[in-house]
Amino acid sequence: MDIYVNHDKVISDAVIKRLPRYYRALKDLEMEGVSKVNSTVIADMLRITASQVRQDFYTVGGHGIQGYGYEVSTLLGDIAAILGLDKRYDMIIIGAGRIGLALSAYKGFRHEGFVCKAVFDVVTEGKHVGDGQQLLHIDCLEEYLSHNHTDIAVIATQKEETHAILDRLVASGIKAIWNFAPIDLATDDKSVVIENINMSESLFVLAFKMNNKLNG
Amino acid sequence: MDIYVNHDKVISDAVIKRLPRYYRALKDLEMEGVSKVNSTVIADMLRITASQVRQDFYTVGGHGIQGYGYEVSTLLGDIAAILGLDKRYDMIIIGAGRIGLALSAYKGFRHEGFVCKAVFDVVTEGKHVGDGQQLLHIDCLEEYLSHNHTDIAVIATQKEETHAILDRLVASGIKAIWNFAPIDLATDDKSVVIENINMSESLFVLAFKMNNKLNG
DNA sequence: TAGATTGTTAATCGATTAACAATC
DNA sequence: TAGATTGTTAATCGATTAACAATC
After folding, report:
1. Of A44, A138, A202, B149, which has the fewest beta carbons less than 10 angstroms from its beta carbon?
2. Given an 8 Å threshold on Cβ–Cβ distance, is B212 in contact with A5?
3. How far lies B116's CA from each of B105, B119, B149, B176, in Å?
4. Which helix (H) or strand (E) holds A176?
5. Is A130 in contact with A119 (CB distance < 8 Å)?
6. Which residues of A are less than 8 Å from B23 in CB distance?
């Protein structure tokens, strides 16, 4: 497991995975017009303990006011900055199948600063992408990457092609990969980060829980 | 956190989440024609320790032969049975947007026994689903569920509609929900299991790791 | 039989929770 | 000031790893 640091403190994977949930909860509070919050309220929203909330915020650098709680807008801004959501990211998507095109069309990511600039596939005829997006043949991948700044590559290919695509992306200097292919991707290159979305793993966990549910 | 039991032993969430990965690794081995395996090989495939592999198998009920290792086909069958992948599951999908339709068309789930029987939306014109699938108006949801056995409901709706849909599904007796809407769904009904796929959480974790990567 | 590798217990490590001093 | 709630350390709990006896 890799180690990430903020202000000299090591941040564990367990904490990192909760940060987006804090972010979303705070966004919801802001949307509802709530300006002040405390660790108990946040804990209830995430279904964790208030102690864990304070411990987590302590780990990433305290943000509260003792005896008062947390200013929603301040805390939201701080957590956004920790996650890097105050920046903009240029993305490309490899694979113009249903999932690739669904991702390219989804506006939620763009709203958070993740902008899809191009979609690549072996077949481009009869497929459509949104405004400001290019639909390119996969053969143009290296050419595109040599001329266009790209922060994140999204892999939405068939299982079989995935490893070859990963190699090409890493060789082209891509440093962040978001993988939707049903493989647990990893790379020895320590400068590359990969996040896998394993839909079938989640489905199998659901099946297990259905079958082994107690006190139902 | 709920507790699941197999042969009198409590199985932790940490173990449950690894079971689908064992399953996939063993499927790959079987596909390659490998008939025998040991804990070290499996550990290397999942990038965990051999000790953890043996401890996990011990928790779900031993499957190996001392001094020999594991028979791939036996172990695969046992883990499939533990996950419940030896059964068939009838699914419906709520939401015929890009993600809902992508899921309805994806053959990978069907191959594992998860069969999508119907897709529901407020708009059904101009949309198409596969053979053996119905495309129905969301108003027909309760009517459909009262006449058709359904194991799993997949939620692929807009954020705003999601809670209302959850309530209707639970009221209709659905016991398993696979949620793709960008909300962390939960229910007080202990007989209902929910698995959330949070794509943006995964993307935010990727952003964090990009920004905080050390020893790059 | 000797060698290999599991099954299982014990030790270690890390994450969560509890407690309370600090302080707004 | 008194009350509230954080920041921070210590205690607890659970998960991972190590060790090795069992046994194929």
Report:
1. B149
2. yes
3. 9, 8, 12, 14
4. strand A176-179
5. no
6. 204
pLDDT at A3: 45
DSSP state of A69: B
H or E, element range at B92: strand B89-94
Estimate in Å the CA A209 to C1' C20 gap, whole number.
39
The Å distance, CA of B42 to C1' of C9, is: 23
CB contact at 8 A, B91 and B151:
yes
Name the token pair of A27.
Answer: 């966004």
- Taking the CA atoms of residue B72, residue A198, residue B206 and residue A110 in that order, the dihedral angle to the nearest 10 degrees is 160
Q: Give yes or no for B30 touching A (CB within 8 A).
A: no
Q: Dump pLDDT digits (tens) for A7-39.
A: 556 799 999 999 999 999 999 999 999 999 999
Q: Is A182 helix (H, G, I), strand (E, B) or coil?
A: coil
Write out residues 40-69 of B within 8 Å (CB-CB) of A.
46-47
Work out if B51's Cβ lies within 7 angstroms of strand D.
yes
Residue A1 pLDDT greater than 80, yes or no: no
> How long a stretch of residues is chain B?
216
Distance CA B167, CA A196 (A): 30
In angstroms, rounded to a whole number, what is the distance separating the alpha carbons of residues B96 and B102? 9
Using CA atoms, how far residue B18 sits from A3, A159, B11, in Å, is 22, 20, 11
Considering only residues 1-20 of chain A, list those whose CB is below 7 Å from strand C.
Answer: 12-15
Distance CA B35, CA B39 (A): 14
Residue in A6, A101, A197 closest to B199 by CB: A197
Q: What is the pTM of this model?
A: 0.94
